[in-house]
C-alpha cells in the first residue's frame, strides 16, 4: 500500500541550472465515472477510462534556477532579509501570455510543492497548447494537468537519475491527480483504473494504474467519436459537481454501484461481451447525469440534441445490431464508442443522421491511445 509520504523525495543527487522538456498528454473518457471526492482529491469511488489518442495537450516546461537570496532578518544586525522561496512561473497558451489560467496552476503548484521541493528553486515558463479546439466543451484539465505533471517528473528525474520508471509514472499520475482527479488517468494507456478496487491488483486512490487484467481484442482498437453538441461554458464546474455528492441522497448507493460496475467490466473486458459492455457504459453515463439532476441545487447538463443523439444511437443499434454506444461527461457532448471494424458504417451514420445535432456540424474522431509521450528533452 502506498501513502502520500512515499512521494516526498529524499535529497537529490544532481543539480541542474536550466533546461526544458516537452510532453504531450491525452484526454481520457471514463467508462465508470468519478463523481464525488473526499479531501486531498481522493475519489469517492473507483473509475476506469479509455485513454484517448488525438485529443491532447502539448506542454513545454522551461526552467531556470532563481538567483538565490538566502537572507534572513538577523537578530544581531536587524538587517532585513529576503528569501526567494515564492513559486514563480509564466504561463503561455499557444505562445501568448494567459493570465486567467494562472490561478489554477498556482493552486496546483502549492498543492504539490511538498512532493517536489525543487519547485521553489526555479522560475518556470509553461507553454501549452491543445490539439482540439479551445472551448469545444472538451475539458482540457485532464490532458493539461497530466502534461504538466510529466514535465515536472522529467525535471525530478534529471535531479535524481536513479529514479525507476515505475516510480516516475506512478508519481506523475499522483501529481496529476492533485491538479485534476481525472488527469491521473491520462498518464498511461490504454485502459486505466483509478481508485481502490478489491479485484484490481495494485489499484490505488492515490494514482491511476494500467488495467492489469486481460483485455479482449474486441476492445483493443475502440473508437470514440466526440459529437460537439454544445461548446458553451459549463453551467456547473466539475469541482462544484463533486461537492454536491456530499449529502446527496443517493451518494452511498451510487458509490457502491461504481464498485459493482467496475467488477462487471473486469469480466466483460475478458470475455469481450459487447452487449454487456454497452449496458454498463450507457448506464454509467445516465447515472452521472441522474446524480446531477438529483443534487441540491440540481442541474441538467444534457441539451435537447444530446437526447436526440442518444435516441438515434439506440434506433440505429436496434436496426443494425452494430455494437455502438454512447457515454457522456459532465456536459452536453456525446462520446460515441464502437469497434474499429465498424468505423465506415458508424461514420456514415454520424454524417447522415447525427451531424445535424452538432454545433456547427462539428465532431472529433478519436480512438484508444497509449498515454503521455515525451517530445523533447533539452
Ligand atoms: C464527469 O477530474 O474534472 O469527467 O478532480 O475536480 O478536477 P476535479 O474533477 P474532474 O472530474 C471529472 C468527472 C467526469 C467523470 C470522469 O472523468 O471520471
Describe this structure in words.
- The chain is α+β, with helices and mostly antiparallel strands and 378 residues long.
- 32% of the residues lie in helices and 23% in strands.
- It contains 8 helices and 14 strands.
- The strands form 3 sheets. Strands 1, 4, 5, 6, 7, 8, 9 and 14 form an 8-stranded mixed β-sheet that branches. It has a 4-stranded antiparallel β-sheet with strand order 11-12-10-13.
- Strand 5 and strand 6 form a beta hairpin.
- The longest helix has 21 residues.
- The radius of gyration is 22 Å and the shape is globular.
- The relative contact order is 0.18.
- The mean pLDDT is 94.
- The site of ligand DP6 has 17 residues, from helix 4.
Measured by DSSP, the beta-strand proportion falls in: 15-25%
Mean pLDDT: 94
Number of extended strands: 14
Q: How would you sum up the global shape?
A: globular
Multimeric state of these chains? single chain
Which structural category do the helix and sheet elements fall into?
alpha+beta
Tell me the span between the first and last alpha carbons. 35 Å
Q: What compounds are bound to the protein?
A: ligand DP6
Task: Give the proportion of residues in helices.
Answer: 25-40%
Number of distinct helices: 8
Low-confidence runs? none
Largest β sheet strand count, sense and barrel closure: 8 strands, mixed
Cα-atom radius of gyration = 22 Å
Amino acid at each position: 500500500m502506498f501513502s502520500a509520504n512515499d512521494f516526498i523525495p529524499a535529497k537529490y543527487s544532481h543539480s541542474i541550472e536550466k533546461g526544458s522538456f516537452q510532453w504531450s498528454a491525452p484526454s481520457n473518457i471514463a467508462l465508470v465515472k468519478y463523481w464525488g471526492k473526499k479531501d486531498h482529491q481522493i475519489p469517492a469511488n473507483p473509475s476506469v477510462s479509455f485513454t484517448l489518442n488525438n485529443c491532447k495537450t502539448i506542454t513545454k516546461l522551461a526552467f531556470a534556477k532563481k538567483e538565490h537570496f538566502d537572507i534572513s532578518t538577523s537578530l544581531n544586525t536587524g538587517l532585513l532579509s529576503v528569501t526567494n522561496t515564492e513559486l514563480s512561473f509564466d504561463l503561455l497558451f499557444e505562445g501568448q501570455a494567459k493570465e486567467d489560467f494562472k490561478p489554477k496552476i498556482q493552486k496546483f503548484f502549492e498543492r504539490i510543492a511538498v512532493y517536489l521541493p525543487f519547485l521553489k528553486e526555479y522560475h518556470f515558463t509553461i507553454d501549452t497548447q491543445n490539439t482540439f479546439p479551445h472551448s469545444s466543451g472538451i475539458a482540457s484539465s485532464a490532458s493539461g494537468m497530466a502534461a504538466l505533471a510529466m514535465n515536472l517528473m522529467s525535471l525530478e528525474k534529471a535531479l535524481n537519475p536513479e529514479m525507476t520508471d515505475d516510480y516516475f509514472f506512478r508519481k506523475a499520475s499522483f501529481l496529476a491527480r492533485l491538479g485534476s482527479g481525472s488527469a491521473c488517468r491520462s498518464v498511461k494507456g490504454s485502459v486505466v483504473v483509478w481508485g481502490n478496487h478489491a479485484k484490481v491488483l495494485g489499484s490505488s486512490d492515490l494514482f491511476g494504474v494500467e488495467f492489469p487484467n486481460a483485455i479482449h481484442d474486441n476492445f483493443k482498437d475502440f473508437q470514440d467519436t466526440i459529437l460537439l453538441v454544445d461548446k458553451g461554458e459549463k453551467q456547473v464546474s466539475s469541482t462544484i459537481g463533486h461537492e454536491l455528492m456530499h449529502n446527496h441522497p443517493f451518494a452511498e448507493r451510487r458509490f457502491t454501484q461504481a464498485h459493482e460496475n467496475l467488477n462487471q467490466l473486469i469480466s466483460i473486458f475478458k470475455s469481450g461481451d459487447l452487449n454487456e459492455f454497452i449496458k454498463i457504459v450507457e448506464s454509467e453515463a445516465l447515472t452521472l447525469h441522474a446524480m446531477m439532476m438529483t443534487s441540491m441545487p440540481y442541474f441538467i447538463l444534457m441539451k435537447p440534441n444530446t437526447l436526440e443523439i442518444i435516441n438515434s444511437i439506440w434506433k440505429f443499434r436496434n436496426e443494425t445490431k452494430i455494437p455502438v454506444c454512447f457515454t457522456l461527461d459532465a456536459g452536453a457532448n456525446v462520446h460515441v464508442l464502437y469497434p474499429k471494424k465498424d468505423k465506415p458504417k458508424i461514420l456514415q451514420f454520424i454524417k447522415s443522421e447525427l451531424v445535424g445535432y452538432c454545433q456547427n456540424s462539428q465532431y472529433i474522431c478519436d480512438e484508444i491511445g497509449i498515454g503521455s509521450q515525451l517530445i523533447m528533452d533539452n
